[in-house]
């Protein structure tokens, strides 16, 4: 699935995705201005237009089709994230909470009338094919996407697992090129963790699902137990993370904070004004922290990065994030349909709105390809016959044969290697 949504079974749940922040709420909350008089002249015009279409259009059109198209048009001109969800779309929204869905694994938005990739999701056909954040999809199986809605694009890109699809991509203003992909059932593992080096942990969150906060807590516990003492540092990787469930973003932030505000939202309806605060527990045990972000880090990812940055809990490194800071309310309608309506903005603890600006990293580190030169085989003093011993009694350190070392994530990832180097530097200056 390409355009992701999240919805929990709770009566009131907020979810924030790269292009969709969802607040599930009762439909009654939407009646903010029901006392306003009806615009009779405009309604008469609407009825007249509808009547003219029915009588004069080249082919017969049903009242149902005309009215549903009118609803879609009403919402599409508000902002890129408000939408009318037909039964299939509403069902997809609800089912995707589990993190298992069918499609390509791309989070999309719109730009200049075209479909734009916010981020590919880890371990999906899109990431395997090399789709990158910022790519413009100008054709889907030969169909031009100019002025196509995100829902229409999603419908075209969905399909049976194993079926083929061809996307025409423009990258960085270059020439268009085609990418062939095979649709698959996407099972997203939202959290991966490992040690980069002795005492330096790495946690990668690909998107925020319902259980992500719990999984991060388990990963931190396991790393602390495996290392046996306070971790020397942690890299929290939120690059190309399109977002997800707000509550999960709050829980992840809370694992690194002992007090204070994490995020708050402001809007016109009562249920849109929420505040989330940290509890005193710190699952990370105060370990030095670097948070990696980039242009594919959106919504819930920006909440985490913004909260940790405002509290000066860690160093945010990478490039500017996406800038998705609005909340959508899912209002169920009859006949298994729903409205997804933008109702609020969210703010970091210091009152920053991320909308259309994003999070600016404390240290900018752009993507770069790492190439390593082979060390020349040399002779050291300790290799020479009859060399003097170390005056302090230290052991000799002769040259050694260069043996192949196992591949590590930081070996080919410049941003990650810089994050690890920063953590090492912090430990040296702190005397750890």
From TrEMBL:
Name the InterPro entries for this protein.
ClpP/crotonase-like_dom_sf, CtpA/B_N, PDZ, PDZ_6, PDZ_sf, Peptidase_S41A, Tail-specific_protease
- A Pfam family reported for this protein in Swiss-Prot or TrEMBL: PDZ_6
Q: What is the lineage of its organism?
A: Bacteria, Pseudomonadati, Pseudomonadota, Gammaproteobacteria, Pseudomonadales
For whether the record's keyword set contains Signal, the answer is yes
- Signal peptide (residue range): 1-24
What protein name is recorded for this chain?
S41 family peptidase
Q: Which UniProt keywords apply?
A: Hydrolase, Protease, Serine protease, Signal
- UniProt record similarity statement: Belongs to the peptidase S41A family.
Cite the NCBIfam families for this sequence: prc (TIGR00225)
Q: Domain PDZ spans what residues?
A: 90-158
Q: Where is this region: Disordered?
A: 374-415
Q: Is Cell membrane there in the keyword field?
A: no
Q: Basic and acidic residues compositional bias: what residue ranges?
A: 374-384, 397-411
Say which species the protein is native to.
Ectopseudomonas mendocina
